[in-house]
Amino acid sequence: MYPEYDVIVVGAGHAGNEASAASARLGKRTLLITMDMNKIGQMSCNPAMGGIAKGQIVREIDALGGYSGIVSDKSAIQFRMLNRSKGPAMWSPRAQNDRMLFAEEWRLALESIPHLDFWQDMVREIIVENNRVTGVVTGMGITFKAKAVVLTNGTFLNGIIHIGEKQFGGGRIGEKRAEGLTEQLISLGFRSGRLKTGTPPRIDGRSLDYSKMEEQLGDENPEKFSYTDTKALTKQRSCWITYTNQDVHEILQTGFEKSPMFTGRIQGAGPRYCPSIEDKINRFADKDRHQIFVEPEGWNTVEIYVNGFSTSLPDDVQYKALRMIPGFENALMFRPGYAIEYDYFPPDQLKHTLESKDVQNLFFAGQINGTTGYEEAACQGLIAGTNAALNLLDKDPLVLRRDQAYIGVLIDDLITKGTDEPYRMFTSRAEYRTLLRQDNADERLTPLAHAIGLADDHRMHKIETKLSGKNALIKHLGQLSVEPEEINSLLEANGSSATTQKVKALTLVSRPQLSLDEIIKAVPSIKEFTSQYGELENEVIQQTEIQVKYEGYLSKERELADKMSRLDHVPLPVNYDYSKLTSLSMEARLKLAKIRPETLGQASRISGVNPSDISILLVHLGR
What gap in Å lies between CA 389 and CA 411, rounded to an integer? Predict the structure, then answer.
């Protein structure tokens, strides 16, 4: 009665949406199964996309042909480029979004994709025959057959919600949890663990006094995430900043004896880099205040997200403490904050394709792998869905290196090191972050997407035009001589030494005190040259400036990346018995046997495997 599918994706959150979109767009008949069709693309926590390192991931997803950047642009209510005062490797785009519009845009995008079907139900079991997944069984007892399955279960696996001493099953507030799947996966030999995350209370914005807060405006000239023709914002909604105080902290402390985190009722590890408010005042007792970001949930709603006040304390304690925050004296709560504890599966059980090492064509993506954050989940979904389809097409998998993408860093960290706490991406995790900037994600990744069919010819043409424009502009600047009278006033105004003779424009661009935009204003002939690139003019100018100013750093990173990548081209036997290599340290033997690295490069990044162990493996491999 029911059709057979090439790929089934379980869960319609950020990971599941990207996975099902990628699989279907590669021509595979795909079924997306979700508990609630009205919750597709739900922003379970904060109404925002991007941020430090996360914004780079959104741009990479877009460059690879994913939808997160497009959906974010269409639902944005504010856009900011963070870290503008630092170097371009640190620039990170972030959008505040309309929560309801975000989910609507995701559903409309998915419904427009051929080969993609939907089913509303819970998946309680996967079907495995001869170590190969062949389908799923739903809560209603319906069997759907498939050649590949992608699990993106989020926080729903045996989820428990905590509010003070109250606890109840659920995957999100008001939604039932998923049962049965964890136990079945364990019976198949998978290891599982427990993690925890939390969310703050939601407030009625009409009850707040914004005059007591600091206004946080969007950028004056907002950019966007997607390299497609989505529109940048022409109007924006403000966010606001306020602070906790000692009165707030004292009220919160009265609930500590009922806190599930402090009493031990929560066993799972929480996100170290996004602690609850009670954890912050406990760990940082010397601080008399903590920053609170007051974020609107959309264009037309009055609902407010209280960023920085994540908590699982009793609801009455939350309410009393909130009302001691400046501007919140008359605050009305829509719903309290809560913590949620859920099952995950340590990701060292996966390949770099996100396919299980032990069950063929079974893929895991998102929080089930121990990550936290929409962006981290979405990029895993894109990779898992793409590789599920490529597997069935008998094509080479899409595996990104650490010097190619933040996505490559994230997946390599998960597979090689595993995680026992919710994993969040930071710029500091990427050793090649000067190469992995938000502005060049299309240059790095769109050719790969075009080669496998996720990016069309129009996208590829834009990349080629931008690259040729950058190279042509660098050449033009290298040939153009600028007279002293054209440039000296600008040099003096910026604290740069004046020139007494003609100077090449390229030399001026390399001066750290000057921007290429300022030089163009002083030398109109450059503007005449760049205007030929039309809508890509600003991107060509920006790419040129970064290339010229940071060429020394970029060259060193490329050289280092090339050296390190040599080890990634040395394959290791997947099922090798490392216990026989007694010259290896005991820790190395245990770790290598557990992780089963695919290359020597991956082995070198495993915690506990030392350079001497790598040398021994090189000798053993005849290298």
Answer: 18
